[in-house]
Design goal:
Elements: E1 6-14, H1 21-24, H2 44-47, E2 70-73, H3 85-93, E3 97-100, H4 105-113, E4 117-120, H5 123-135, E5 140-144, E6 149-151, E7 157-159, H6 164-172, H7 176-181, H8 184-193, H9 198-204
Parallel strand pairs: 1-2, 2-3, 3-4
Antiparallel strand pairs: 1-5, 5-6, 6-7
């Protein structure tokens, strides 16, 4: 998993509340077995018509937000079903983080396990970031996970809370497998002292 320490990037505004995971990645695209390739289907039902033609005016398709790597959204982002594909779609589209005043717990947990940062600000702070994104051409922000802070070049600065264990995993690029492999020596030592029964050794091999 790619470590997240400090990220500086352009913002895109999604000024909607209660954005659920079926809106982030509709259910018809969940048949894919890879983690990649979901970005093209991000917010599909908002971006495309039933015939598959692109709708005009959706914010992420506006040229001024091309290349944005930080999404700022309304409250209760990521509600709905627990599909991990929602995080995969956001990351595959090019986002490294999303800013909001509240997140669904399961979405935030899935994000952390995929190296994708959810930045929790107060309602006033999130609203200010949203305003600046709309009003300042090419608005950019720095997200500093080491300092648990977001800041820009216009004087805005805000701290954000994050679980210390989640922060440790993100800073070091550790998913569940990476955390387990940190104890590889202990696991190997245990296996030496506790060999499998003969009947199971062929299965492990």
């Amino acid at each position: 998993m790619k470590p997240f320490r400090t990220h500086h990037g352009r913002l895109a505004p999604l000024d909607r509340v209660n954005v659920d995971t079926d809106q982030i990645i509709p259910k018809q695209f969940l048949k894919r077995i890879e983690r990649t390739g979901f970005g093209q289907f991000l917010f599909y039902d908002w971006r495309f018509s039933a015939e598959g033609k692109k709708n005009a005016g959706f914010v992420l398709d506006e040229p001024c937000y091309a290349g944005a790597s930080i999404l700022v959204a309304g409250k209760n982002f990521g509600c709905g079903s627990s599909r991990e594909h929602a995080v995969w779609a956001l990351a595959d589209f090019g986002f490294r983080a999303v800013i909001s005043s509240s997140f669904a717990d399961i979405f935030a947990n899935n994000s952390a396990k995929n190296g994708f940062l959810t930045v929790l600000l107060t309602e006033d702070e999130a609203a200010e970031v949203m305003r600046r994104t709309h009003e300042i051409d090419g608005y950019q922000l720095t997200i500093d996970l080491e300092q648990c802070e977001v800041r820009d070049d216009q004087g805005f600065r805000a701290k954000f809370p994050i679980d210390e264990f989640v922060r440790h995993c993100l800073l070091n690029g550790l998913d569940d497998i990476g955390l387990t492999l940190q104890h590889e020596a202990e696991i190997a030592a245990y296996e030496v002292l506790h060999p499998l029964p003969l009947g199971l050794q062929s299965i492990k091999a």
